[in-house]
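Archive entry: two folds, one per protein. Generate the first.
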Amino acid sequence: QHPRACRWLSPFLLACSVYFLLWTPELRPSWAAALLKGLPVLCLVLLLGAVPALRGHARLLQGTLLCSAVGDTCLVWPETFLHGWLAPGHPSLGLGRPLAAATYLSVLLPHLQPAMARPMAAYALLLAAVLWRGLARGGSASLGALLFAVSDAVLAWDAFVQPLPHSHLVTMATYYAVQALITLSVLRSP
């Protein structure tokens, strides 16, 4: 990993701390709530911009993180929930992911409104691809991809099947860890 990564992560960690200190279940959807939720990810975008000599993959990841922040903003307002969800590895890494996604979807689909079934199936396939590529990349990207799957599974179960205790804390803690781990994967030595 890059030797200055810890120092560069300080704004991200501070923004995460502020989020967890200020967020409450009673927090109403607002632009302030959206900024509070998106700020940690925006700090990672700035981190990648501040790292000298990063190109290609890092710049692509910056765009991905920006899209993620927009999705986070959409998830603040319940009526925009659907909008917020919207090097080759070894082939054996991808074999279990579609099966796991199909199994999870078979449990989740009966609890979804009909309008959500197709978008959720498409999202599950996308998440399976992210998991496959993250595992293929190795390092912090692998852990990030696994945590991303856990975070989204908890979020979906809580939203569509049955409320889970402390689901928001689990979802957001794993989600912010995912973003940091995937960002750090760009800083590893070639």
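Generate the second and append.
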Amino acid sequence: MSYSGVGSSPGNVAVSHGGKMKLIDRKLKLTELLLRCSATALALLALILIVTNTQVKQIFTIEKRAKYTDMKALVFLVVANGIAAAYSLLQSVRCVVGSMKGSVLFNKPLAWAIFLSDQAVAYMSVAAIAASAESGLIGIRGEDELQWMKVCNMFGKFCNRAAGGTASALLASVAMVFVSSISAFSLFRLYGGATATQRQPNVAVTK
């Protein structure tokens, strides 16, 4: 019975798991794929709901059309969801390709890039939702001190659809937060495995 140390390049870590760890890895990859697909669909739905949102109101002899470009917060939300949808779709494809290849080595720079990108997209989505929610509250309640009138009384359909788009974006951001947690776990697990490999001496023992 022999044991031998295994060397690896500085950028890659050789991952060797038992049957139980392989099962956990498969479940983790499947969860990540489902979350990324969900984030893609929800972000795309939010984008469609907001971009196609419009309402025309006749005020005396003046025709006023409400559209998402009238609110900068909604424009920001559209851009953020477009980026999130495209990014999540690309990462979903990467997950599928990675699962089909069943690669053993995991590149640390790539893990860092995925982790930082997930964090950036998640924070951007949360910021866009916060801005949209604040603008929505002003539209519902108004702001007497700044003499901002309530607009949702006149454009109820527009506000309701914008709220639906914001809710969909919120669910997408929740999925991105969970994805960020998974990518963080995957990244820092590599360093744990690398430390254990470095401590193991490269000796052969025969029994």
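Annotation attached to the second fold: Residues 111 and 187 are 6 Å apart (CA to CA). The longest helix spans residues 156-199.
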